Amino acid sequence: MTDPATPPNGPTGQDPAAPLDVASLQARLARFAAARDWGPFHTPKNLATALSVEASELVEIFQWLTPEQSTRVMEDEDSAHRVEDEIADVLAYLLQLCEVLGVDALAALSAKIDRNERRFPLPGA
Amino acid sequence: MTDPATPPNGPTGQDPAAPLDVASLQARLARFAAARDWGPFHTPKNLATALSVEASELVEIFQWLTPEQSTRVMEDEDSAHRVEDEIADVLAYLLQLCEVLGVDALAALSAKIDRNERRFPLPGA
Amino acid sequence: MTDPATPPNGPTGQDPAAPLDVASLQARLARFAAARDWGPFHTPKNLATALSVEASELVEIFQWLTPEQSTRVMEDEDSAHRVEDEIADVLAYLLQLCEVLGVDALAALSAKIDRNERRFPLPGA
Amino acid sequence: MTDPATPPNGPTGQDPAAPLDVASLQARLARFAAARDWGPFHTPKNLATALSVEASELVEIFQWLTPEQSTRVMEDEDSAHRVEDEIADVLAYLLQLCEVLGVDALAALSAKIDRNERRFPLPGA
User: Fold this and answer.
1) Is C53 in the A-facing interface, judged by CB distances under 8 Å?
2) CATH of the domain at D68
């Protein structure tokens, strides 16, 4: 695996060997912003705000759909692309927020599911 | 590694051996909701809406803070827990939305970063 | 004053004499949607969702600005128009939601300020 | 009518004679914040952010309801109070934002409806 700290693929920094896991994508996002000097804009407050804006752009795709229509949103090529694009944007800002705050998103989610299993025990449990 | 399809740890379904990766957490969330019959509530529209609500709960932690104060939010135990909890909630709904829509969140993000590297090339690229 | 229930100004329904008050604008919005058969889309859930989407479009104008830059947003013609447009959109959905639910927005706000004056009394009060 | 600039009713500033119109409520909100020295927190950016947070609290009331259930939300006393409370909060932050930016919310909405009547003309218009 290529060392994520030294992308080998020219001035765009594109790294085709980057694995699809959270740590690698989070590092890729950090390099992307650093290379463009976006750091000053990426305060935790601004990143959380940007995340909420993207979450609303995702909701917007569904806002006039019935619940049943919403289940078929991936059947149309245009709305499918919009959905994937906004999901990517939400995840991007979530990981950038985790990066600047030093939060492990997967560990936080695992701990939350543990707590929810205690809060909402199954019948007979 | 324990087979994620058959959690061995009693009626609560808690699976201490589940690895911290997106696929495992996404499967764990799906089992959790299915076991409690939450399926009918989890239309894509409702999940996207719930995600945006949690994103706003995350923003709320920062809403009266200055940009500088926001960088120190993890230094206070209470706000640190709130931040981790809301990050977990946003990720939970994002993965549940991906599950019902059949979207691969990591692949979508990787493709988005590829597109952004072309849209925002580095000087000299 | 022209009776808001019977706009006199041709097929577009434009009523230049409609006073600038909440009740008249709320009625104007209701006629606009009814004339275009938008009723089925205007469930309370959809209207609340649309309102939150517009609120995020308003936030988006500010998301990378510093607090100080945000105070000067009306000095640029383009951002000033965007701000007014999104404020209008938020108010439009708020009033349409009040219309379908039978809520009096101004009375609700007045009562809320009363409650806040008791919750946050001035020193010496 | 009582002069909104000089509330006569003691240290809480409560003014029972304040009419229910946008200008009076906007002034009442401004006095409330000024009396508590909340000015530094009320940057346009923070007010827009707070508005979006309240808009999401309003959506949250509906997030697991079906469209049909959402039409009956005012029939339950608790959810009716929650709805009115969040509508009030959204309107409060909208008017406070308009106050600090010098935007006339009602004029902005009226102009927006005019534009929409041109964008979405009725058949035969």
Assistant:
1) yes
2) 1.10.287.1080
Report the pLDDT value the prediction gives residue C6, as an integer from 0 to 100. Answer: 44
**CA gap A41, A12 in Å, rounded:** 21
pTM: 0.88
Question: Quick check: is B64 in a domain?
Answer: yes
Asked whether residue A7 is domain-assigned, the answer is: no
Asked if residue D58 is part of any domain, the answer here is yes
> D9-63, pLDDT tens digit by residue?
444 445 555 689 999 999 999 999 999 999 999 999 999 999 999 999 999 999 9
Q: Any idea which residue has 């003309």 for tokens?
A: D121
3-class DSSP string for chain A: CCCCCCCCCCCCCCCCCCCCCHHHHHHHHHHHHHHCCCHHHCCHHHHHHHHHHHHHHHHHHHCCCCHHHHHCHHHCHHHHHHHHHHHHHHHHHHHHHHHHHCCCHHHHHHHHHHHHHHHCCCCCC
The upper half-sphere exposure of residue B121, i.e. CA atoms within 13 Å in the direction of its Cβ, equals 7
Query: For C63-80, what is each residue's pLDDT tens digit?
Result: 999 999 999 999 999 999
Q: Average pLDDT for residues D67-93, to the nearest whole number?
A: 97
The amino acid occupying position A25 is: L
- Total domains in the fold of chain A: 1
Three-state DSSP at C124 gives coil
B51, B76 Cβ separation under 8 angstroms: no
User: pLDDT (tens digit, 9 = 90+) per residue, A9-68?
Assistant: 444 444 555 689 999 999 999 999 999 999 999 999 999 999 999 999 999 999 999 999
Asked if residues B108 and B62 have their Cβ atoms less than 8 Å apart, the reply is no
Residue A122: its chain B contacts at CB < 8 A? Answer: 11-13, 35-36
Which tokens go with A35?
């290379």
Quickly tell me which residue has 């128009």 as its tokens.
C81
Counting every residue, how long is chain B? Answer: 125
| Domain housing A87 | 22-117
The CA distance from B41 to the nearest CA of chain D, in Å, is: 6
Query: Of the candidates A49, A52, A63, which has its C-beta nearest C46's C-beta?
Result: A63
Q: DSSP string spanning B40-71?
A: GG--HHHHHHHHHHHHHHHHHHHTTS-HHHHH
D90 CB burial (10 A radius; 0-12, 13-18, 19+): buried
Tell whether C65 is covered by a domain: yes
Task: Kindly determine whether residue B32 and residue A113, on different chains, have CB atoms separated by under 8 Å.
Answer: yes
